[in-house]
């Protein structure tokens, strides 16, 4: 951005110097000077905009750095919670499956074995599912508040007003 700003200021200087030089030539001065003067001023405005845009970018980055780190940390924690939920659920279901399989091999009735296992493990799974589902409205709300319509920043608005 600094390089572009310098280029624009140099371009403006050249144009304004030409406008001054051509002002001494009759006939040419009436046409070329106003055009060169206006283009030189436009380059100066663009250089100012480039400078402000750079400052705005740095300020925006500094402003969002803290909240962004916090948000990403919370997102990682949420993913850890969700993965722990699924790992626990998988382990519980595997445990139920293995115990039912063992009981059936021992000659017990499938329905009775299933009922007994679910009576013990069902409340654990049900509580885990309820806890998981209770977190979902917060997740949805957090995702919905992320803006999806971005306006031009004030530098771009300022520049378009001056064009």
What does this structure look like?
By secondary structure, the protein is mainly alpha-helical. It has one domain (2-162). 88% of the residues lie in helices and 0% in strands. The protein is built from 4 helices and no strands. It has helices at residues 2-22, 28-105, 110-144, 154-162. Helix 1 runs antiparallel to helix 2, helix 2 runs antiparallel to helix 3 (110-144) and helix 2 packs antiparallel against helix 4 (154-162). The longest helix is centred in the middle third of the chain and has 78 residues, at 28-105.
What structural keywords apply?
single chain, 163 residues, mainly alpha, 88% helix, rod-shaped
Biggest sheet architecture? none
Structural class: mainly alpha
Low-confidence stretches: none
- Assembly type of the chains comes to single chain
Domain unit count: 1
Shape assignment: rod-shaped
Strand content range? under 5%
Pattern of helices and strands: HHHH
Q: Count the beta strands.
A: 0
Number of helices: 4
User: Percent helix among the residues?
Assistant: over 70%
Radius of gyration: 34 Å
State mean pLDDT (0 to 100 scale). 78
End-to-end Cα distance: 20 Å
């Amino acid at each position: 951005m600094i390089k572009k700003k310098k280029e624009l200021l140099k371009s403006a200087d050249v144009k304004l110097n030409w406008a001054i030089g051509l002002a001494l030539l009759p006939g040419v001065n009436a046409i070329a000077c106003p055009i060169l003067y206006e283009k030189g001023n436009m380059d100066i405005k663009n250089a100012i905009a480039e400078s402000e845009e750079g400052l705005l970018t740095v300020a925006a980055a500094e402003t969002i750095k803290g909240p962004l780190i916090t948000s990403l940390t919370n997102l990682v924690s949420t993913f850890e919670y969700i993965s722990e939920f699924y790992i626990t659920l998988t382990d519980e279901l595997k445990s139920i499956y293995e115990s039912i399989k063992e009981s059936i091999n021992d000659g017990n009735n499938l329905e009775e074995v299933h009922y007994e296992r679910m009576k013990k493990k069902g409340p654990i799974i049900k509580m885990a599912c309820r806890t998981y589902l209770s977190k979902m409205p917060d997740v949805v709300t957090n995702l919905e508040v992320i803006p999806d319509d971005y306006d031009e920043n004030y530098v771009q608005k300022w520049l378009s007003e001056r064009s």
